[in-house]
Design brief:
3 helices; Neuraminidase; Elongation Factor Tu (Ef-tu), domain 3; 625 residues
Length: 625
């Protein structure tokens, strides 16, 4: 029998049985396709050795007029600007004032200090910075007290902090103490890392659920919106205020509430912020209506915009272009994205095109589609002028009209996703590889642990596992960047290993085929040798001196559904350097018998990168039984 070439269809397909997908690929992890053949994805390296507090859910990159390349980093605890690898805390201050006379009380041999501040307005976990405090007389000195702390609330008038010293008898004697000039600067409220169900009285909306029974709702995780206005930054947590950071003041100055800079109509709450490239308006989607009965209450379907080129003017008049419009299909605006001459806006039910019309209407809307879902505020991506997003049960595309995106992994993805954590879903692009990525929590996880990729150039799907919390593909950076659960940022597609901690570790990557017939699948075949075809590409020799290696495994089957028999595997090692790209073991001898077979390529070694070509197997007839 002649050598049989194993050249499988590109992409991973799990929409049917493994045998039905004969001639294709069925499983993958950290593998992509290039020109129809699978290869291991690139590695990742530390963006810097610095870390931040909390889990990052938002990344934004821009340049200042002074040529500073900045990255905005929004976590559930803080908001930072990364400059030169260092994180600068610009989290806005909610309230700052001189608090009760001698507010600190120490307990002997304890590092927990009780603080009294009438109607402090804080919640457990919030941050406060003290200044102007004096020593309690012992170990609890002024330097110990005048720092930033997270609080644990006791009552509406008191809370505790944990300091870096243990109170002595002198501190107890000096309590209450701290002086009459203690200033407490409270940062805006923190948020949860994940969506947390709230159950009981007051959890749902007024009148929702039977009287006296209570209901359930969700305490949404902290999601930041950010967009640069020129070199300055507009930012804020979803459902809260808008803050403004001025680049010329430097990265050590905190952002301030836009209401302190703008007119009386400046929005006080927002669900999404975007700055239009057309004529440069600030558009706030989901915000308060200053002319409503309750002028500070959130109207989740209202869009408001500032005057042209002016984020501080919001009162409409004959001499400016400020204004508003309310959408009608849906209960809330979820997100928006800018493309060409429109801002595509998503409610929880419909998709709108928001376009600049000029005076007197300024901005107008057009309904693009109804009964269209969007899974989260960060699940929409723009690639090559086309918008892609993830709905509650399928993927969509908008290229001038809304269409369902054919997905070979639809059942696999939506059959193993935790919809209770849907707000954690986020997307990103890897333009260098023509890919759109979606990250999500698998069914039994409350942390992001899986991804699915659509290659829009080759129209292929593949998937895998990876723990990330945010992603940004920016032309101002050499690589896409992503936030990790290690509370740092990594450069994606950098190197070939997992270098998130600064110490290289192997990336476990594999791809496994669907079942395919050995020969015609009628008789048993005996495979006695394999001629691999692959390249080790960007591989490097590992620190231990080991050569890069890939393992090829053959799983034989007597028939579809019979289960695999005794498998055979062999390591394929880079052994020579040639002018051509084929750098691998030339032949592998094996012993495999069956009617069908599954082929698996895998690697789990430092320094290894690979791309599979078209291996060939040598088969001898072996009878029908």
């Amino acid at each position: 029998m002649p050598l049989q070439k194993v050249l499988l269809k590109p992409g991973v397909n799990r929409e049917n049985t493994r045998y039905t997908n004969e001639g294709g690929w069925y499983e993958s992890d950290k593998v992509r396709f290039r020109q129809g053949t699978p290869e291991k994805i690139g590695g990742w390296t530390q963006y810097s050795t610095s870390t931040f507090l909390g889990l990052c859910r938002s990344l934004w990159n821009w340049f200042t007029l002074a040529g500073q390349n900045l990255v905005g980093v929004g976590t559930n605890l803080k908001f930072y600007i990364n400059q030169g690898g260092a994180y600068y805390d610009i989290t806005p201050i909610r309230a700052s004032s001189t608090i009760n006379n001698n507010p600190f009380v120490a307990t002997l041999s304890s590092s927990v200090i009780t603080v009294t501040d009438t109607a402090h307005g804080g919640a457990t976990g919030d941050f406060v910075t003290f200044s102007g405090a004096t020593s309690l007389g012992g170990n609890i000195t002024a330097d110990v007290l005048n720092k930033e702390y997270q609080i644990t609330v006791l009552t509406v008038n008191s809370f505790t902090i944990t300091v870096a010293a243990t109170a002595s008898a002198a501190d107890v004697t000096g309590s209450p103490g701290g002086g009459a000039s203690v200033v407490a600067a409270y940062q805006i409220a923190i948020g949860p890392e994940i969506e947390v169900p709230l159950v009981g009285w007051g959890a749902g909306g007024w009148g929702y659920g039977p009287w006296g029974v209570g209901t359930s709702a969700v305490n949404s995780l902290q999601l930041w919106n950010q967009y640069n206005f020129g070199e300055n930054l507009l930012f804020g947590p979803r459902g809260a205020g808008i803050y403004y950071w001025v680049a010329s003041t430097g990265v050590v100055v905190r952002g301030v509430n836009l209401t302190t800079l703008g007119d009386a109509n400046t929005p006080v709450v927002q669900n999404f912020i975007i700055v239009s490239d057309t004529s440069r308006f600030v558009l706030v989607m989901g915000t308060n209506d200053p002319y409503a009965v309750n002028p500070t209450a959130m109207d989740p379907m209202l869009i408001r915009w500032s005057d042209q080129e002016n984020p501080f003017v919001w009162i409409p008049s004959a001499t400016n272009q400020a204004g508003s419009i309310r959408l009608s299909h849906g209960s809330k605006i979820v997100t928006a994205i800018q493309t060409r001459q429109e801002i595509v806006t998503f409610t929880d039910q419909a998709v709108y095109s928001v376009q600049y019309l000029g005076p007197p209407y300024i901005w107008g809307t057009q309904l693009l589609g109804d009964n269209i879902s969007v899974l989260s505020s960060n699940c929409v991506a723009l690639a090559s002028g086309i918008i892609y997003w993830m709905g509650v049960d399928k993927f969509y595309i908008y290229d001038g009209r809304i269409q369902t995106l054919n997905c070979d992994l639809r059942r696999y993805v939506f059959g193993d996703i935790n919809l209770a954590q849907s707000e954690q879903v986020f997307s990103g692009t890897s333009e260098g590889f023509n890919e759109v990525w979606w990250f999500y929590c698998s069914a039994n996880s409350t942390t992001v642990d899986k991804y699915v990729i659509y290659n829009y150039l080759e129209k292929l799907w593949y998937y895998g596992t990876m723990a990330r919390t945010a992603w940004l593909d920016s032309g101002l950076l050499p690589n896409p960047i992503a936030a990790t659960y290690l509370k740092n940022i990594v450069n994606q597609e950098a190197g070939v290993d997992d270098n998130a901690t600064g110490t290289p570790a192997a990336i476990e990557a594999y791809i496994s085929s669907a079942e395919f017939d050995i020969g015609d699948g009628h008789n048993f075949g005996y495979i006695w040798r394999v001629l691999p075809d692959l390249t080790f590409g960007d591989s490097v020799v590992s620190p231990s001196g080991a050569q890069p290696q890939v393992t090829m495994t053959l799983y034989p089957m007597a028939s579809s559904g019979s289960g695999v028999g005794t498998s055979a595997s062999a390591g394929i090692t880079k052994i020579a350097e040639y002018n051509i790209t084929e750098e691998f073991t030339g032949i592998v001898y094996t012993r495999v018998r069956g009617r069908q077979m599954i082929l698996k390529m895998s690697s789990n070694q430092i320094g290894t990168s690979w791309q599979l070509g078209a291996p060939r197997i040598d088969i001898r007839p072996d009878g029908r039984r």
